[in-house]
Amino acid sequence: MPPRRVITGRSQEPRTRFAQELRQLRLHHKLTFRALGDALGWDWSLFSKMEKGETIGGPEVIQALETYYKVPGLLLALWELALGDPTQFKERYRRYMALEAEAVSLWYNAVGGVPGLLQTPSYARAQLKSGGLEGDELESQVRARIGRRELLEGPGAPPFRAILSETVLRTPPLGGQDEWREQLEHLLAMSQRSNITLQVVLQSAGLHSLMNTDVIFLRLADGRSVAYVETAHTGDLVQDSAAVQRLQLDYDRTRDLALSPDQTREFIMIILKEMPCDPST
Fold first, then answer.
1. How many Å apart are CA 251 and CA 259, to the nearest integer?
2. Using CA atoms, how far apart are residues 67 and 76, in angstroms rounded to an integer?
3. pLDDT-based confidence at 88, cuts 50/70/90?
4. Would you say the pTM of this structure is higher than 0.70?
5. Distance CA 111, CA 130 (A)
6. From 119's CA, which of 165, 171, 219, 265 has a CA 20 to 30 Å away?
7. Could you tell me how far CA 199 lies from the centroid of its own chain?
């Protein structure tokens, strides 16, 4: 039996299809980006980025577009599929990314760098570039990583807790001081969100069981917890309940050593004050 012919000719990948549908709706209504922005009260550049696949926006703008175009439920359904689309990531991360999109809470221990969900574009680019990526592949992976941040935004965003080693906050990636300052300021801003908790473990806390381990725990809707343990070269998805529980015990012990969220914000501000000023200012 011959394969069924695709009628629309549009992409079957959720993020690409979402961007295509947005473009089709705008063109059908004969709108420029500026006209659409004026009508909805958003910066017109957001809609340009959405049609280019650089971002998928948040649920508020999607609902506004649905109301304006009179397509209730359509864009939100496509947006949800795009949010969980694993095809934007490298093969070895896809199973984890699919679970991340479904998680009802996320706990992170970071020793190797700022967690991807908290990175700025400049930080993500520098980190991925140091790993050997370049050109179109580099930019594609930067967009994919930054797109993940939308998971933490909006009224239904899951609780997210990150424990950062002091080393993470004192190790800027390759790049200028301005980019590093932007990243630290972004961490401060994210720590003010009601669903995000940041804590720092100082070097003076001494040795502990997760001092060399990046790990993230995902609590799933069915009550299960899984863990993703990552090094600079590989990552392993841990689903065995006993193994996950052992890692969670190590996480709890590490959290006992960490500064409180308020103390962590104060510590980040101290680092910002210690940074050299731009001589042009």
1. 14
2. 11
3. low
4. no
5. 17
6. 219
7. 18
Distance, in Å, from the CA atom of 41 to the CA atom of 240, rounded to the nearest integer, reads 48
Token readout for 202 is: 């100082």
Q: Encoding tokens for residue 260?
A: 């409180």
Structure-block tokens of residue 134? 């370049």
d(CA 59, CA 155): 9
pLDDT digits (tens, 9 = 90+) for 165-201: 999 999 887 767 888 999 999 999 999 999 999 999 9
What are the tokens at 123?
Answer: 């930080």
Q: Which amino acid is at 70?
A: K
pLDDT tens-digit profile of 122-160?
999 988 887 777 777 788 788 888 888 888 887 789 999
Over the chain, what HEC string results?
Answer: CCCCCCCCCCCCCHHHHHHHHHHHHHHHCCCCHHHHHHHHCCCHHHHHHHHHCCCCCCHHHHHHHHHHHCCCCHHHHHHHHHHCCHHHCCHHHHHHHHHHHHCCEEEEEECCCCCHHHCCHHHHHHHHHHCCCCHHHHHHHHHHHHHHHHHHCCCCCCCEEEEEEHHHHCCCCCCCHHHHHHHHHHHHHHHCCCCEEEEEECHHHCCCCCCCCEEEEEECCCCCEEEEEECCCCEEEECCHHHHHHHHHHHHHHHHHCCCHHHHHHHHHHHHHHCCCCCCC
Residues 128 and 85: their CA atoms lie apart, in Å, by 20
Query: Is the distance from CB of 181 to CB of 146 less than 8 angstroms?
Result: no
CA dihedral for 48, 54, 55, 56, sign (positive or negative): positive
The dihedral through the CA atoms of 131, 162, 61, 16 has a sign that is positive
